[in-house]
Amino acid sequence: MARWFWLGGNVAHTLMQRYVNGGIYHMHGVCKLCKKEAKLELSHFIPKFIGKWLKKTAITGYFREGNQVSKRKQDIAKDYWLCGSCEDIFSTWERSFSLKIFYPYIEDSSLVTSYDNWLSKFTASLSWRTLTYIRSKNSDETHSQEYLDMLATAEKGLADFLLGKVSNLYEFEQHIYPLDVIESTSFDNLPTNINRYFLRTIAMDIVSNSQGTYIYTKLPSFIVIGIVKCNQSREMRSSRVAIGGGTISPREYVFPDGFDGYMMDAANKISELYEQIPEEQLAKIEQYVVDNPDKVLDSKLFEAIVHDYERFGKNSLR
Fold first, then answer.
1. Which of 158, 171, 253, 264 is the most buried (most CB within 10 A)?
2. Which of 111, 113, 120 is nearest to 93 (CA)?
């Protein structure tokens, strides 16, 4: 498996000038998607509505990123990535996903709903953002030229699809996995925070094993996997996002080989990191819980904690 990365911090850009236009900060540079020189806007790698939902449904009104657990966050990672036109295109697909799939599924995981070609565009945009973000953070020196060329080809294929230059994703197909509460499982040593990981965590990564290379984007209650190279496409057919449209519904989903272990490792890592929260921060959280019991009980985070507690007991609270 490749190394995994949690969102955190802005990616540094040079040779750009910042200026203020009507109170909104811009930079002048080259749009990562359309490659045109333009005023660049602050673009969220994970859609902005996800960050707002995490804040709104948290216990304290803030959230913490996995690599900076000692600091409260008010927004998710963003950087000057896209021009205004490309940002507007992404926003249209994000709105469709949020209103037709994300919010309805959060309220009812038995959701059955149809989608049009906007879902293939939305999932491809997530994979493109994750791929470009991770490539900007990784050192090329640690990878073979063949691997780097493979990622560059995938990035171009996704960009061409998003810009309407091609009408098909070809080998770079997108897969979406709705996640539900785990009440029972045959897996041993399941992480005691697995429901919190499934229902609340956001993450981006490029994952490789002997069967393929995948772009991994974790949203609350959803995982999007973009194919870079894969030998299991037929087995994964139930999760594939159809270009022209299809249906999201409860069904049996198949992850690529190795992803069960990958997700359990990721959940365990978050648990370990959260144990590093300073005592003074923990004391503030405990006091907030005491002072705001109604808000705590109504939060989606508390709901996820309860699911883990019901499954694992006191071990889930360590």
1. 158
2. 120
